[in-house]
Automatic annotation (TrEMBL):
Keywords: Cell membrane, Membrane, Transmembrane, Transmembrane helix, Transport. It is found in: Cell membrane. It comes from the Bacteria. Its main location: membrane. InterPro entries: MetI-like (IPR000515), MetI-like_sf (IPR035906). PANTHER family: ABC TRANSPORTER PERMEASE PROTEIN MG189-RELATED, ABC TRANSPORTER PERMEASE PROTEIN MG189-RELATED-RELATED. Belongs to the binding-protein-dependent transport system permease family. It is a multi-pass membrane protein. The chain crosses the membrane at residues 12-33, 76-96, 108-128, 140-160, 181-206, 239-260. Residues 71-260 form the ABC transmembrane type-1 domain. One of its GO terms (biological process) is transmembrane transport. This is Raffinose/stachyose/melibiose transport system permease protein. GO terms for cellular component: plasma membrane.
């Protein structure tokens, strides 16, 4: 009887998930492949014709190929930010986990505040202007690294807690110290949690809308999410083009999640158990 109830609950959960996620996604795909006249109905009717290529070309050519530039900017932003996050967060987590002190307690408190306290937009803009990084991609990269550092440090630290200290001592006896100890002994063992951090932060940064909107205004350094915001005003009567733009923006993170969702769950679970 208990197994039957559990199976029924799982079936209901799957149905609800399908209604919440799959139905809007199906409407988006259907609208993206319709012509302008039929797309205005915003229904689930099958397309009378399939102007897929024309819709795709119109979206790509819009505003002097701004979507292509945005894809390049989003790719550079995501890759650079994730690399810096993995390197600095893993190193910081190793130090915080291995060296317990009053200074470490203060650092732990600051890490937690990074998850709790919301970012201050105006002071951050002032700081970027003072550094000459406002409206620049390097400045936005630093912002993304700072905003995702606390979350990544906590994941890395939970995983490092399960690595025996005897490995550190053995490596030190063999002559490894400092960076050599970390990158040659500890970091290779962090592969599961590193994959989790890379995938989760990549999706979050690629889909980020607020930070690029505030810190890199204009089309030169626009990301894909900002172009969607601009396209809403440009294509407010051309739903087929607007939804085609949404499809093109949704594809990369969706594929990333489909192919690596098991690794994400495995890394999160391993860190939670070992913490």
């Amino acid at each position: 009887m208990t197994a039957l109830r559990r199976l029924s609950a799982e079936a209901i959960a799957l149905v609800l998930a399908g209604v919440i996620f799959l139905i809007p996604f199906a409407l988006m795909l259907l609208t993206a492949v319709k012509d302008q006249t039929q797309a205005t109905d915003l229904d689930f009717a099958w397309p009378a014709n399939w102007p897929i290529v024309q819709n795709f070309v119109d979206v790509i050519e819009a505003r002097d190929y701004v979507l292509l530039r945005a894809y390049v900017n989003s790719t550079v932003l995501t890759v650079a930010s994730v690399v810096l996050i993995v390197v600095f967060a893993s190193m910081a987590a190793f130090v915080l986990q291995r060296r317990a002190s009053r200074l470490g307690s203060v650092a732990n408190f600051l890490v937690l505040t990074g998850l709790i306290i919301p970012p201050a937009i105006v002071p951050t803009i002032w700081l970027l202007q003072a550094l000459g990084l406002f409206k620049t991609l390097p400045g936005l990269i630093l912002i993304e690294v700072a905003f995702h550092m606390a979350y990544s440090v906590l994941l890395f630290r939970a995983f490092i807690a399960a690595i025996p200290r005897e490995l550190d001592e053995a490596a030190q006896i063999d002559g490894c110290t400092g960076l050599g100890l970390f990158f040659r002994v500890i970091f290779p063992l962090l592969r599961p949690v590193t994959i989790t951090v890379v995938l989760t932060t990549s999706v979050a940064i690629f889909n980020d809308f607020v930070n690029p909107l505030y810190f890199t205004p204009g089309d030169d350094n626009a990301t894909v999410q900002v172009t969607l915001y601009n396209f809403q005003s440009q294509y407010n009567t051309q739903w087929n083009l607007l939804f085609m733009d949404i499809v093109l923006i949704t594809i990369p993170p969706l594929l990333l999640f489909i192919f690596f969702n098991r690794k994400i769950v495995a890394g999160m679970t391993a860190g939670a158990i070992k913490g």
